[in-house]
Amino acid sequence: MAEPILEVSGLVKHYPLTTGILFKKQVGAVKAVDGVDFQLDQGETLGIVGESGCGKSTVAKMLVNLERPTAGSITYKGEDITTLSGKALRSVRRNIQMVFQDPYTSLNPRMTVGDIIGEPYDIHPEVAPKGDRRRKVQDLLDVVGLNPEYINRYPHQFSGGQRQRIGIARGLALRPEIIVADEPVSALDVSIQAQVINLLDRLQNDFELSYIFIAHDLSIVRHISDRVGVMYLGRIVEIGKDAEIYDHPTHPYTQALLSAVPVPDPEAREHRERIILAGDVPSPTNIPSGCRFRTRCWKAQDRCAAEVPLLAVPPHLSLLPGPTAHDSACHFAEEKQVVPPEEPSE
Ligand SMILES: Nc1ncnc2c1ncn2[C@@H]1O[C@H](COP(=O)(O)OP(=O)(O)O)[C@@H](O)[C@H]1O
Ligand code: SF4
Ligand SMILES: [Mg+2]
């Protein structure tokens, strides 16, 4: 099999908690990301889903080098990029770009759209020499479905959906190979979300992009992801192909998240069992021993407090044929169909 374009291994980000003003003393750590592993194949979309605060944005920031990992590696085309600096780092950064969540705050209100989209060329003039920039930016506006004549307008003159298109155009400016999209549609109206997702889908084909697509809701990533990883409290607890996660989930947390996904068909909705989780997500400064989900899990037993479940195919499921046998960090993983399988569309 071809080498993955990106491979993340043992990724950790702990933010120190300190007391004292003059003499700072570390008293603990916010374990925002606490051991994340995944790989991304060329041309693939990996969805990463989990509730707010589980560490999704921190993973995204480490991938694009806005944060330095506390531990672990990020391997891009066979090279660990967490240790690079200078020219080598710049060249890798060019190839991994981010699209941010909030199109209202991520664009500088005092810059024209042309300057916003063309700003990455200041750092990488080799991609667009000065005389060529205006045309390149206008091409990008066209590619994301905006009128190239809008180049001199300001962000406030656009709607939320249009602003996210501007953010996407900026992400594409350097012709990256990987786009890390951190909740790119979460701030948009539902009616606009599908348009932006369709645009990302089309761009993926046109520019042969690989995507990490982050969302807090499993329903949003369903149609764009080839594989999905579910995060809880700084770790991926279940990961697999689209159908493995949606139709054959084996981790109780994934099952609970799926039970909250809207089901359009009223009859199917009636038969769906809603799983309400007890309690709140624990603080990332104080992660439960053993399985980090155990304080909310209806299946928890003594073993769950003593032994950390690894993200792997559970041994008792490994001999089962088909989609049930996929990576799930649960000692007692078992399939539970929560959402009725989708009928193939006609
Ligand atoms: N710079 C920081 N310093 C301290 N804690 C942080 C910092 N950034 C994020 N966190 C904490 O790390 C956890 C994960 O945050 P984040 O990655 O933004 O989650 P998500 O994107 O899934 O909502 C949260 O508890 C958040 O408060
Ligand atoms: S390991 Fe135990 S607590 Fe964790 S998800 Fe599985 S059953 Fe629940
Ligand atoms: Mg976030």
TrEMBL record:
The keyword Cell cycle does not apply. GO terms for molecular function: ATP binding; ATP hydrolysis activity. GO terms for biological process: peptide transport; transmembrane transport. Keywords: ATP-binding, Nucleotide-binding, Transport. It comes from the Bacteria. The lineage of its organism: Bacteria, Bacillati, Actinomycetota, Actinomycetes, Kitasatosporales. InterPro entries: AAA+_ATPase, ABC_transp_ATP-bind, ABC_transporter-like_ATP-bd, ABC_transporter-like_CS, Oligopep_ABC_C, P-loop_NTPase. SMART domains: AAA. Signal peptide: none annotated. Pfam families: ABC_tran, oligo_HPY. Belongs to the ABC transporter superfamily. The keyword Hydrolase does not apply. This is Oligopeptide transport ATP-binding protein AppF. NCBIfam families: oligo_HPY, PRK11308.1. Residues 17-258 form the ABC transporter domain.
